[in-house]
Request: fold
Amino acid sequence: MARSAAQHRLLEKLGVRVPIMQAPMAGVSTPEMAAAVSSAGGLGSIGVGATDAAGARAMIRAVRERCSGALHVNVFCHAPAIADVTREAAWLERLRPEFARFGQGPPATLREIYRSFLADPEMQAMLVEERPEVLSFHFGVPGRDVIRRLRSAGITLLGSATCLREAALLEAAGLDGVIAQGYEAGGHRGIFDPDGADDRLGTLALTRVLVQRLDIPVIAAGGIMDGAGIAAALALGACAASLGTAFVLSTESLADEGYRAALQSEAAYHTVMPRAISGPPARCLPNRFTRLGGATADEVPAYPIAYDAGKRLHAIARTAGEFGYGAQWAGQGAPLCRTGAAAEILQALAAQLDTCRAETPLLG
Reply:
């Protein structure tokens, strides 16, 4: 009973009426999307792992200008990249034929295009100043001193986990809740060690295990696309469900025309989990980039150095009208995507959830 009460108190504390979190999706979500979802009763989110402190501050303030609801900000806590000139040169050589398709050669070198939150004191200080209601960590968790400063600012802290071991580390670190990222989830797999063993737990199994083993709230994430999926997650004990792919086709999304077309095509039924695009495993739609052939962990440069190559190739190809080299992140529920404004999508999901609960009392 105490554990169940704790699950529900998290949403009450944040003033979230609808148990739906729009996933942060760096590079796809926007302040407009987050504001629309929060205004409609859910928890709107932005991902700032691909920008610096100034850029993140501007995004947070853009949300604040549009709504007064709770805001969820997500950061990346990957191990800071260690350059490997030999590996990076070999990787660029492997991509040379793809660059050549567009009359260009690969760049001479690659760089670390994003700073890890673990090594970004400016981002840490900015978040303490701006005080978003919720901050979540992906790929890991910062040290206790950073957590203490964030908690002192009144920020609710969440962390992504792909297994019980990671979730237990998050709970021990003093976080307020865990996002259970199932293997079905789109985008970067939040595993703490991308080169380590991965049990590949599905969302439902992982959610139930964490609900039974932890004393902090659990949010289910991965493959959830409609009211029935949300109801199932809640029935397993989650306090909310996190949906990302469900909002990629929204009018507020930054997804380009090629990404949108692919998500509404046969490709949506065949998502894959390559490392080639950015370094760590990440679920996306199959395209020209994912069909380059399997790449092992010791071939692909570290994240986000590898992503530098992927982004440059995509930019060159897109200029020529080819969108097949983009990072078209999508979960396994992709065929259930819908179009429309983010608020309309949120409202439709909430209505479906209410219908499921009414028709199936056990899910209430």
